[in-house]
Design a protein that fits this description.
- The protein has 496 residues and is of the alpha/beta class.
- It has a domain at 92-106 and 233-466: Rossmann fold, CATH 3.40.50.
- It is built from 21 helices and 15 strands.
- It has helices spanning 17-23, 52-63, 69-79, 112-116, 119-130, 145-154, 173-180, 196-208, 210-218, 231-250, 270-280, 297-304, 329-336, 341-354, 361-370, 378-392, 398-409, 429-435, 445-456, 462-465, 483-494; strands spanning 6-7, 32-33, 92-95, 98-102, 135-141, 160-167, 187-192, 221-224, 260-265, 285-292, 306-308, 356-358, 371-375, 416-421, 477-478.
- The strands form four sheets. It has a six-stranded mixed β-sheet with strand order 3-4-14-9-10-13, sandwiched between helices.
- It is globular, with a radius of gyration of 21 Å.
- Bound molecules: pyridoxal-5'-phosphate (PLP).
- The site of pyridoxal-5'-phosphate has 16 residues, from helix 11.
Amino acid sequence: MSTFYHSTRSGTDPVTSKQAILNGIAPDGGLYVSDAITTTALDLEGLASAGYHEVARRVLGALLPDFTAGEVAACVEAAYGDNFDTPEVTPVTPLGADWLLELYHGPTCAFKDVALQMLPQLMSVARRGAGDGRNVMIVTATSGDTGKAALEGFADVEGTGVTVFYPAGKVSDVQRLQMVTQRGSNVAVCGIRGNFDDAQTEVKRIFADEGLRSRLAANGTVLSSANSINVGRLVPQVAYYLYAYGRLAAAGAIAPGDAVDFCVPTGNFGDVLAGFYAKLLGLPVGRLIVASNTNNVLTDFITTGTYDRRRPFHKTISPSMDILVSSNLERLLYYLSDGDVELVASYMSDLAEKGLYTVSPQLLARLQETFACGWADDEATRATIRSTWEGEHVLIDTHTAVAKSVLDARPSEGRERVCLSTASPYKFSSDVLAALGRDTSNLDGFTCMDELARLTGTVAPRQLSSLRDARELHLDVCDRDMMGSFVESACARVFA
Ligand SMILES: *Cc1c(COP(=O)(O)O)cnc(C)c1O
């Protein structure tokens, strides 16, 4: 039972959750999943009065069974404190007839903080458990927000280092500045010439590179991941689905057992998969609505059953969702096929070799039982930011607006609906300001931030406005084939 996790591509070689967190990805290239999740029922008693810490302890306790209750409690305490600007951690507020789950109150103003303030805590416990004194280098590809959140979470954490690759020219000004100004003696940041999928593919290759791994192992270093392929990132995200449910119950909007729908702006499918985990664990989840931008590969997949990444990549105003290969879908396929590892492995090899796969009609039917989908282009996204501000006086960012736009286009199915809000609008000031009708063509990022504050009477988070005085420390940009050697030299420097 303590070996709770195994690969999506083989049922053999099970590992504990501590090992899964340290490894990041399974040796055969699959992602770690647990079969027990379908039979584990979470304690949903008293959710309406449970605080965030209590909810997080229940979720972590159930999904990381080899962590002691004391370890879980200490991790929760350390991860969700003053670093969030509200003790609620992820408050729920009204949004017209629906609800907004605000996931951007952490140190980097994006939802990634909820998981990445926790992952270093889990990793430290797991390292102590391994007891071999090895150092862990986190290697992460980012579409913009994971990178900063990983840097912030792991900076100066004993025995760890963090290397981040971002697609140069394809993240917002503020996102880039957040990363290149990061301080800490154990951090490395590099832009790559290519897009997020290129970076993520190369990071996966680096993890599978035996030669590199053994050279690093000889120096006492292992590689791990802070992308949502790591279970230590996925598990903390399950908590806010429960917390949101509890808030709706506390507000009297639902009675115990009523199902709730969630609409999730999606890229790598980590966030929405956490909602599916919540459902597997017994939370009354109605529909999970997968919202995409113009890179709408998931809309097509959920509609037709064919996942086809052979399509143009679009750079949009919701860059953290500019993804054509959604890694965590592999976990969903595992669960929807009742754990058919050969089938999952064959879909994944088709995707790698041919660029597409088609799931069986049975699997598609099961997918559509729970998941709905929709997409919004940049124009619809802008229109939604504007109408939400003018109609509700709620200022939302470009990613949240994709979800809200998809939600608005769907008829209600009679259930309460929660729209996940994944970033502060100030992270994308220039696009948000333009959506409100301002001409931003000659304005830099910080002028846009000031202007957005003035126009809306809201306040820019200090950790973003203070970037204007921060020094740029990490100026490297490299080609994709140099990423491996960049990681090696970062390990040599950080763990010297
Ligand atoms: C990462 C991110 C997303 C997409 O989340 P996934 O877990 O990759 O699906 C959406 N919005 C924002 C602001 C993000 O940073």
